[in-house]
Each structure stands twice: as structure tokens, then as C-alpha cells.
């Protein structure tokens, strides 16, 4: 009994630890500036309202520094929030899609085709991820600049792919290796070339892994800060994390506005997770071969 | 239809040679069984014929066409796997239709072909099910259906019955034999089960260590085994092999060091023209239609299969007759057969 009680207590503490900041973000996004900064804090919004969100969506129409009365004020650069959201979405979707294209073909080749240097290829690809990002910032900056991509979304897409593709290859290889080899053989006999085997056997049977790879690539790109900070310097290409961080670095900080922006930043990944969660099911290969 | 010719076909994995300079001519329409213990290279040979394994050395011909470097989907062979290898995301009908779909056969024709195959294999009520809703025997019938629907000239089967229970295996065995008669295609069938090999094959290639030990008809393999390995691999219970205690056939030169083989069923009541042997019965195992005995002879113990009316008891002395012409002689050093 005591054991169960302890377990419940620690579980509750853990949930609070994980969910606490998110709940506070949600709650404060519905509060006015004065309510957020009040002591003692208002855990629940005393007068919940969407004024912060409407401020975000109308920020583009107003001047640089606007006093919103007791709701707070708009930080400079608030007008960049929606464009940066759009940038983030574009980069995220491109990275998710291209990541899948590159990783799928690479993982298929490494997992299925028996070619010389197969292991070496895999280790080389993985080795690129052993180097910390910070060590790569300057070389990456030079590469991107020489490619003429600085201040473009392309810079971010290329860079994020370098981060996500190796991991995705690794995830997909282990998934592909779990698919019975006889299915591949049967498909080859039935008339599939390598593209056919990929399309008819590996793609439909690795849906959970593909969804995981999509989510991983999108989230990595959605959250990335360091490369985005270095490789983009104007609104044309800046992503959400950079813009939101910019609000805090102003000489004053509008918590209400920043938190509402935070809620908006959370929404796309959450939506993605909700849409795709039903695909993340195992047991798709049940009945394929004896076992 | 196609004849398959392997000329010096070799498969190496690094320093290991799985199949060594294999020469094998499989006739058009023949049912060839590759028989041997696990690791003997039979499945590797089959996979090389299918194109699923690259051939390290040698040439593979279908009729007169060199297919050595041709990928599997261009070889026009069908294959049935031990694991069935059905596509789990497709229904039975889709599984069977798949090879035709890839060949862009018109839809109406596919439907007709699938219905025909389903009828033939009694799969019609199962066409809408997925593989995980089928029993082992049904799955293997679907796998057969997927193979025959294309009417290929070469069928490759990799231990297709090994995962089935004994009763099902018997009925599937006759189904495969009937299919061979109907389709008149070339069948190459891999198994480690001698009963399957003996019942199905036109010819059997017995393999060991990547080398064919003997290539002959089932009768030839059983009656005239080329060496001790083949003699012991076929026959249940195993052939009795003794250096002493069994009569020496007259075609074996005096003084030559030989091992004599006696099939357990090649015994009779003592009688005219038979050599008479005697020993003590150590074990009696009634098998219903017959009785299996273990009898201690002077040169060692032998297993015999005798009619059930022999009525022997353990511990008793037994005299039995052996036809010297039915004995097998092998050179003790080379283990090769000494032919009469």
C-alpha cells in the first residue's frame, strides 16, 4: 500500500514537473500583463481572454511599440511573429518531406542491398552526428554563405537535413531489418525491382517508423535555434524561435505576449502528433511469416 | 518451360564456400529435389537459381539463355518460401494478384486468373481475408496460388512444408505433386525431409558441404547410394553399417577394408539363397504394421524392421536371413560405394 502511495506521489510530482511549465504558459497566455506579474501569482486566469492572441494577429497593422493598456504592450518586432510562424512551417514541412525521401532510400540501400562498404557507409553517416552542433556552426556558416543561401529558408532546410537524415537513416534501418527478409525476396520474385520492393513491401510495413521520422524531422526543425540564429539575419528567413527569443531580449519583456506566442508555437507540433498518433501502431507485420 | 543448367556454379561468403563448382542439369518439366542436412548449400543453390543470391563463379542457363547476372524479377521464376512470405497488408486475393498486377495484366484478366487459382486451391471463401486470419496450411496454399497464378516455367520451393503439421504436410505434398502434373513446369524443390524427396522427385540431388554427393532417381539413390553419407541420409531407420558381422558380398575383393550396409527392411526368415545371421534381441518396438528390432550381432548392433507376425521377445536369440545381393559395400577409407 505504502509502495503504491509512493509511486502515485512520485508520478504526480513527475507529471507536475513535465506539464507544469506548459500549463503555466497556457494559463498566462489568457491573462493580462498585470495579472501575470502579480504576487502571489494567479495560477488560473482571473479574467480569461484572448486579447493576447488578438494582439498577435493584429500586430502587423500597428506601429513598433504599442501600449495595450492594462493588457500590456507590444514588443518591437511583434509584427514579425506571423511571418516567422509561416517560415517555420515551410522549413519544417520541407525538412520533414526531404528527410524522408533521402533517409528512406539510404536506409533501404543499407538495410537491404548487399553492397561493398555497407557498414562503413552507415558508420560514416552516423559519425557526422557525434560532432556537437556548436562545433559545426562556423563551417556550416561558411558553406551556406558560399552556396549563396544566407538569409534564405533554403539555408535552414539544408542545415537541418544534415542533422535529421543520419538519425532517420538509423531509425529506419533498424525498422527495415525487422521486416522479414522473405517478404523482400518474395517481392523480387513476384516482379519488383528495388523501387518496387521499397514501395510495395518496406513503405507499407514501416508506416509507424515513417510517421516517427516525419515527426522527428519536423520537431527538430521547428525547435532549432542555434543554426537559425547564425544563418538568418532578417525577417525574410527568421523562424519562430528566433523571433520569440527576440521579444525577451528587448529592454522590457511582455510576458503576456511572449506566452501567447509560445502557445501558438506549441500548436503545430501538437496538432501533428494528434493527427498521426493513430498511425504509430505496431503489429502491422503480424501474419506475414510464420511466427 | 525451361531447362536449368548450372555450370561450375560457386557461392562464396568471404572465405567460406557455401556451394562449390556445382554442375547440375535440370531437365525441362522435371521435378528436381535438392536434399541435404542444414548448411549443405541447397537453399543457397535455390536462391542462386532465383537470383536472390549473386553467383560468385560459374554460369546459370535457362534453356540456352545465360541468366547468371539477371535480377530475380527478370528471370520469370516463381518461388514458395518456408515462411510463406505473404504480404501482411494485402488480402488473399491481392496477394495472389500481385505478380500479375506488377506485369500490368488487364484487371479483368487478373480477376479471372485469381478466381481460377482460388478455385483450384480451395481458397475462394478466403479471398477477402488477410494472412493473419489464416491457418498455416491456408497460408501455404495462398503462397502456392501466388506462385502458380503467373504460370511461370520454373517453380522454386524452399522447404514449403516444413512449418506444417504432419497430416497437413501429407495432403500438401500430394497437392504439389498434382500441381506438377497439371502445370508440367520445371520444379526445383529444397528439403531436408527424405520422405518428401522420395515421394515427389523425378530426380534427387543429395548435397553435403556445398557439393552434390549423388544425382539420381529416388530409387537409384535409395538402392544404390553413392557413398556412406547418402546411404545414411536416406532411409528411416538408418541403414546399418558394420565392418564385421555382416556377410561380405562376393563382388568385394578379399582383404579390402570395407564397411557393409544393410537396410533394416532387407531381412527375411532364414531360407534358401539367403545368408543366415544370428544374434540376441535387445529391444522390440512394435510399430503397428511392423516391428522394429535391435539385434546384437558379433560385429555390433543392427536395427531391423520385420513383419509384425515374427513375435520376438527381448532377450531371445533370433535367426534371420539376408540376401547378399541386397547388401551395400563401401570402401572403409574413401566411404565410396563398391558397385557389384
Mean pLDDT of chain A: 86
What's the CATH topology name of the largest domain in chain B? Rossmann fold
Largest interface: A-B, 26 and 34 residues
CATH superfamily of the largest domain in chain A: MetI-like
First and last CA, distance of chain A: 40 Å
CATH-assigned fold name of the largest domain in chain A:
MetI-like fold
Tally of structural domains of chain B: 2
Q: Number of helical segments of chain A?
A: 13
Question: What is the CATH architecture term of the largest domain in chain B?
Answer: 3-Layer(aba) Sandwich
| Strands side by side in the biggest sheet of chain B | 6-7-8-3-9-10
Q: Overview of this structure, please?
A:
- The complex is a heterodimer of chains A (291) and B (340).
- By secondary structure, chain A is mostly helical.
- Chain A is 68% helix and 1% strand.
- A two-stranded antiparallel ribbon of chain A has the order 1-2.
- Chain A is globular.
- Chain A starts with a helix and ends in a 15-residue tail after the last helix.
- Residues 282-288 of chain A have low confidence and may be disordered.
- By secondary structure, chain B is an alpha+beta fold.
- In chain B, 25% of the residues lie in helices and 31% in strands.
- In chain B, a hairpin with a 2-residue loop joins strand 14 (290-297) and strand 15 (300-307).
Amino acid at each position: 500500500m505504502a509502495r503504491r502511495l509512493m509511486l502515485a506521489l512520485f508520478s504526480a510530482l513527475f507529471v507536475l514537473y513535465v506539464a507544469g511549465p506548459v500549463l503555466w504558459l497556457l494559463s498566462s497566455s489568457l491573462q493580462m500583463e498585470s495579472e501575470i506579474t502579480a504576487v502571489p501569482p494567479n495560477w488560473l486566469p482571473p479574467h480569461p481572454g484572448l486579447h493576447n492572441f488578438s494582439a498577435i494577429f493584429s500586430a502587423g497593422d500597428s506601429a513598433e511599440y504599442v501600449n495595450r493598456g492594462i493588457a500590456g504592450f507590444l514588443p518591437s518586432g511583434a509584427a514579425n511573429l506571423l511571418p516567422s510562424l509561416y517560415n517555420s512551417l515551410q522549413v519544417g514541412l520541407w525538412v520533414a518531406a526531404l528527410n524522408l525521401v533521402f533517409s528512406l532510400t539510404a536506409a533501404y540501400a543499407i538495410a537491404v542491398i548487399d553492397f561493398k562498404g555497407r557498414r562503413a557507409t552507415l558508420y560514416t553517416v552516423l559519425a557526422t552526428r557525434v560532432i556537437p552542433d556548436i562545433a559545426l556552426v562556423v563551417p556550416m556558416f561558411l558553406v551556406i554563405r558560399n552556396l549563396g543561401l544566407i538569409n534564405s529558408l533554403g539555408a535552414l532546410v539544408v542545415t537541418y537535413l544534415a542533422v535529421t537524415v543520419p538519425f532517420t537513416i538509423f531509425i529506419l534501418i533498424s525498422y527495415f531489418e525487422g521486416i522479414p527478409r522473405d517478404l523482400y525476396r518474395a517481392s523480387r520474385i513476384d516482379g519488383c525491382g528495388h523501387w518496387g520492393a521499397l514501395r510495395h513491401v518496406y513503405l507499407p510495413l514501416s508506416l509507424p517508423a515513417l510517421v516517427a521520422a516525419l515527426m522527428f524531422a519536423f520537431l527538430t526543425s521547428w525547435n532549432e535555434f542555434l543554426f537559425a540564429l547564425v544563418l538568418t539575419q532578417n525577417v525574410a528567413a527568421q523562424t519562430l524561435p528566433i523571433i520569440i527569443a527576440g521579444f525577451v531580449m528587448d529592454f522590457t519583456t511582455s510576458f503576456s505576449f511572449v506566452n501567447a506566442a509560445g502557445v501558438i508555437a506549441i500548436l503545430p507540433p501538437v496538432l501533428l502528433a494528434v493527427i498521426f498518433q493513430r498511425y504509430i501502431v505496431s503489429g502491422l507485420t503480424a501474419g506475414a511469416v510464420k511466427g | 518451360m525451361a531447362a536449368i543448367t548450372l555450370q561450375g556454379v560457386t557461392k562464396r561468403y568471404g572465405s567460406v564456400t557455401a556451394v562449390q563448382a556445382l554442375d547440375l542439369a535440370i531437365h525441362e518439366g522435371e521435378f528436381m529435389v535438392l536434399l541435404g542436412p542444414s548448411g549443405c548449400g541447397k537453399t543457397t543453390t535455390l536462391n542462386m537459381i532465383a537470383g536472390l543470391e549473386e553467383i560468385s563463379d560459374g554460369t546459370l542457363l535457362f534453356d540456352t539463355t545465360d541468366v547468371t547476372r539477371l535480377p530475380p524479377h527478370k528471370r520469370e521464376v516463381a518461388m514458395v518460401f518456408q515462411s510463406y512470405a505473404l504480404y501482411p497488408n494485402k488480402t488473399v486475393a491481392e496477394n495472389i494478384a500481385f505478380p500479375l498486377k506488377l506485369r500490368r495484366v488487364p484487371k479483368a484478366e487478373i480477376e479471372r486468373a485469381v478466381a481460377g487459382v482460388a478455385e483450384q486451391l480451395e481458397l475462394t471463401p478466403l479471398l477477402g481475408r488477410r494472412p493473419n486470419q489464416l491457418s498455416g496450411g491456408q497460408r501455404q496454399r495462398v503462397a502456392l496460388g501466388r506462385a502458380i497464378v503467373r504460370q511461370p516455367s520454373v517453380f522454386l520451393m524452399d522447404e514449403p512444408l516444413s512449418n506444417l503439421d504432419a497430416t497437413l504436410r501429407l495432403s500438401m505434398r500430394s497437392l504439389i505433386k498434382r500441381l506438377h502434373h497439371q502445370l508440367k513446369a520445371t520444379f526445383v524443390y529444397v528439403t531436408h525431409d527424405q520422405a518428401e524427396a522420395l515421394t515427389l522427385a523425378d530426380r534427387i540431388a543429395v548435397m553435403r558441404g556445398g557439393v552434390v554427393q549423388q544425382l539420381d532417381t529416388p530409387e537409384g539413390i535409395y538402392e544404390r547410394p553413392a557413398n556412406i553419407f547418402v546411404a545414411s541420409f536416406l532411409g528411416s531407420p538408418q541403414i546399418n553399417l558394420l565392418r564385421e558381422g555382416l556377410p561380405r558380398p562376393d563382388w568385394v575383393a578379399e582383404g579390402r577394408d570395407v564397411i557393409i550396409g544393410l537396410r533394416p527392411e532387407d531381412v527375411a526368415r532364414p531360407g534358401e539363397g539367403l545368408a543366415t545371421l544370428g544374434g540376441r534381441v535387445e529391444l522390440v518396438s512394435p510399430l503397428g504394421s511392423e516391428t522394429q528390432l535391435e539385434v546384437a550381432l558379433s560385429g555390433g548392433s543392427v536395427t531391423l524392421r520385420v513383419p509384425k507376425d515374427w513375435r520376438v521377445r527381448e532377450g531371445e536369440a533370433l535367426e534371420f536371413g539376408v540376401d547378399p545381393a541386397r547388401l551395400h559395400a563401401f570402401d572403409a577409407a574413401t566411404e565410396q560405394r563398391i558397385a557389384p
